Amino acid sequence: MAAKRKAAKKAAAGAGSTVANARANPYVSRFIEDEDLRDNVRVAFESARDAYDRLSNGKTAGKTVLDDKKFQKDLQRSASALREVGDSLRGKKRRKKAKRGGMGLGKLLLVTVVGGAVALAVSEDLRNKVLDMLFGAEEEFDYTSTTSPTGAPPAAPVS
pLDDT tier at 101 (50, 70, 90 boundaries)? Predict the structure, then answer.
């Protein structure tokens, strides 16, 4: 029995020094103190677990990766949280991007191009102005014949 107590005391002393060494590690102390860092690690883990669950639900992996929007969203959320964890541990401050009211730059560009195409298709004046700007103004001319008509053409014989 005395040997067990001695071994337990030795293990406890070793655990105490391990905890002290862990506390001295700047990453561990940062993890203990920083609530946002812990939250980002938790979000990354939960999102990765949800993505894995969706990947192993019986569908083929290719179909899940390409077609499953929830799987893609979980992976994106996990990657974003891990990126923030890395930046936080390196000491970089990341600005949160403000969400726009629904229309990103790509969508805005698409709407502009489609709107311009519709306007060109509908308006002949606008189409002519654009063509004049691209290829130069069209020269207008009046055609005058240099030959004079010699009379009426011969009538075809009636049979």
Answer: low
Does residue 22 register a pLDDT over 90? no
Long-range contacts of 72-76 (CB under 8 A, 24+ apart): 74/47, 74/48, 74/50, 75/47, 75/48, 75/51
- Contact status, residue 74 vs residue 44, Cβ threshold 8 Å: no
Q: What is the rounded CA–CA span in Å between residue 11 and residue 18? A: 10
Whole-number Å distance between alpha carbons of 157 and 134: 54
Helix, strand or coil for residue 13?
Answer: helix
Domains of the chain: which residue ranges?
11-94, 103-139
Structure tokens at 21: 């060494």
CA–CA distance from 71 to each of 53, 63, 67, 94, 154 (Å)? 9, 11, 9, 25, 84
Check residue 56 and report its DSSP letter.
T
The answer to pTM > 0.90 is no
Q: Give the integer Cα–Cα distance in Å for 25 and 14.
A: 17
Interatomic CA distance for residues 143 and 159, integer angstroms: 39
In residues, how long is the chain?
159
